Amino acid sequence: TQYSCIIVEQDGPVGVIRLNRPEALNALGQQITQELIHALNGFDTNNDIGAIVITGSDKVFAAGADIKQFQGRTMANMIKEDTLDWSSKIRAVRKPMIAAVNGYALGGGCELAMMCDIIYAGEKALFGQPEINLGIIPGAGGTQRLVKAIGKSKAMEICLTGSVKLNAQEALAAGLVSAVYPVDKVLPQSIKTAKIIASKGQIAAALTKSAINQSFEVPLEAGLLYERRLFQTAFGTEDRKEGVDAFVNKRVAKFSHL
Ligand code: HXC
């Protein structure tokens, strides 16, 4: 497939998507989000891929939605065209996704990172939700996922001022990101983790992702029941037989994703 705003590569069992719209700081307009969804769906349905990494450039992960495309829009066409529907499609990806963030992750860029399952940040990363400066509010999870990641007071401060941003160390301390690396190490480290994940059974990985995400949706008792059922489900897989047999026989498991 020919893409114009992203670069798609495969590194062994890892799918890598690089946002590549430097002239607009990777602003998430129509074209780039369509391409992103297309590439993600390709990887999600590709048996050879076990995990996905989304990254930008050294300077910017993504500076948000494409503000220029907001000009002339009305409430009516925002509703009818539901331009943020791409974010629901990203949420539906079953394979684990890692955001490798360098530079700005603002507005929709911060939200895109939060749609991923793990975030690694480069030392110069900067996370923020400046939408209020445009007279709007975050629209793809900024008021929801950010609260869950870093708590109410910090999320309010970031979204209400539009100017408070988290640098990499602050994002680490707040729990928004898992680790901070030098700029040139973020992508390699992300791919390294993605390869570890990809070495597991894909079904177990998908069930794990689904169970952890369920914790955001339901009360504890219902979440525990969901987890129990998925745990039991895992016993129906070839990978479970292989994993347990490998342990007992002191060898490395070789998962078939069945
Ligand atoms: C469209 C953008 C853009 C954006 C930057 N550009 N961000 N175009 N949408 N979000 C363009 C600029 O217009 C400029 O192009 C070029 O990229 C370089 O940007 P500069 O501002 O000159 O760069 P710099 O001085 O380094 O400042 C970087 C920046 C700033 C601090 C990141 O660009 C900025 O504040 N951008 C907007 C951030 C933002 O408000 N994001 C939230 C968007 S709303 P030209 O050709 O004009 O020179 C949103 C809603 C979420 O995300 C909804 C869910 C997706």
From TrEMBL:
Leader sequence segment: none
The answer to whether keyword Lipid metabolism applies is: yes
GO BP, one example? fatty acid beta-oxidation
What PROSITE patterns does the entry give?
A: ENOYL_COA_HYDRATASE
EC number(s) recorded for this UniProt protein:
4.2.1.17
Mention any one GO cellular component term assigned to this protein in its UniProt record.
mitochondrion
Enumerate the InterPro entries for this protein.
Answer: ClpP/crotonase-like_dom_sf, Enoyl-CoA_hyd/isom_CS, Enoyl-CoA_hydra/iso, Enoyl-CoA_hydra_C
One annotated GO molecular function is: enoyl-CoA hydratase activity
Keyword Lipid metabolism attached? yes
Q: Which Pfam families match?
A: ECH_1 (PF00378)
Q: Which domain of life is it from?
A: Eukaryota
- Origin organism is Smittium mucronatum
Q: Where are the transmembrane segments?
A: none
PANTHER family the record matches: ENOYL-COA HYDRATASE, MITOCHONDRIAL, ENOYL-COA HYDRATASE-RELATED
Q: Supply the SUPFAM superfamilies for this chain.
A: ClpP/crotonase
Family stated for the protein in its record: Belongs to the enoyl-CoA hydratase/isomerase family.
The record's annotation in CDD domains points to: crotonase-like (cd06558)
**Protein name, as recorded:** Probable enoyl-CoA hydratase, mitochondrial
Q: Name the UniProt key words of this record, in alphabetical order.
A: Fatty acid metabolism, Lipid metabolism, Lyase
